[in-house]
Amino acid sequence: MKLILLGAPGAGKGTQAEVICNKLNIPAVSTGNIIREALSKGTEMGLKAKSYIDAGQLVPDDVVIGIIKDRLGKDDCSNGFILDGFPRTIPQAEALDAMGIDIDRVIDIEVPDEKIIARMSGRRVCKSCGATYHTEYKAPAMDGVCDVCDAELIQRKDDHPDTVLERLEVYHKQTEPLKDYYSAKGILRVVEGQEDVADTTALTLKALED
Ligand code: AMP
User: Fold this and answer.
1) Could you identify the atom of ligand 1 that is nearest to the CA of residue 85?
2) Is residue 124 among the annotated active site residues?
């Protein structure tokens, strides 16, 4: 199965991608994770992407399309995949079509902006192992310290409140039009993101069957 998870940044796509990945045994492909990994390794692509990410802007289409072409060409994607965070613009969706990839289903996880802002501003990540926390919903045992490896927890630059607002604006302007794009193909299903992650998962899995 070839799936796309759509939704605003912070809508919970990553969590749902992980669940589906385990259930269907297909890889979850997150362009955000690939870019962050490149950034931490200091590669040319990572450095090129940094200023866009820090400003809450999208990395240019040609860069992310190149990343996706590379990643989807790997053996583990031959039986399907879940795209988390790609496509984010109409040209990116058109590039997927041009690659001859037939997407089976697009799940759009809808969460109101106010909730996104509350969720993202409270997000913290371990500087060392990358474990994620939330000041309100998933607090570590000791404030600011990772439960897994005791390293310091930090707030990603792109989770700072100003950047979150910018990312939401970018989402509404550049990514939301994809809903119409995939709705016209008859493969879009909308899931209302719930307070409880497990409830959202149940709705997401149901949307795969319809
Ligand atoms: P994410 O973790 O998916 O929210 O991605 C973090 C950041 O990586 C985004 O705010 C963008 O700057 C960049 N990024 C990830 N995926 C894409 C994409 N498909 N197109 C453009 N930029 C992207």
Assistant:
1) 3
2) no
Task: Judge whether 71 counts as a catalytic residue.
Answer: no
CA–CA gap between residue 199 and residue 126 (Å, rounded): 27
Question: C-alpha angle with apex 115: 111 to 118, nearest 5 degrees?
Answer: 145
CB hemisphere CA count around 11 (13 angstroms): 24
10: left (phi over 0), alpha (psi -120 to 50) or beta: left
Q: What tokens were used for 51?
A: 């200023």
Give the Å distance between the CA of 15 and the centre of ligand 1: 16
Closest residue by Cα to atom 4, ligand 1, is 9
**pLDDT tens digits, one per residue of 131-165:** 989 998 889 999 999 999 999 999 988 888 888 99
Tens-digit pLDDT profile for residues 104-113: 999 999 999 9
Pocket test for ligand 1, best of 88, 123, 165 (most atoms within 8 A of CB): 88
Least Cα distance to 33 among 22, 46, 20 occurs for 46
Ligand 1: residues within 6 Å at CB? 9, 30-32, 35, 52-53, 57-59, 64, 85-88, 92, 158, 167
1 CB neighbour count, 10 Å cutoff: 13
Give me the residues paired with residue 6 across strands. Answer: 108
Q: How far apart are CA 4 and CA 208, in angstroms?
A: 11
**What's the pTM?**
0.88
36 is catalytic: no
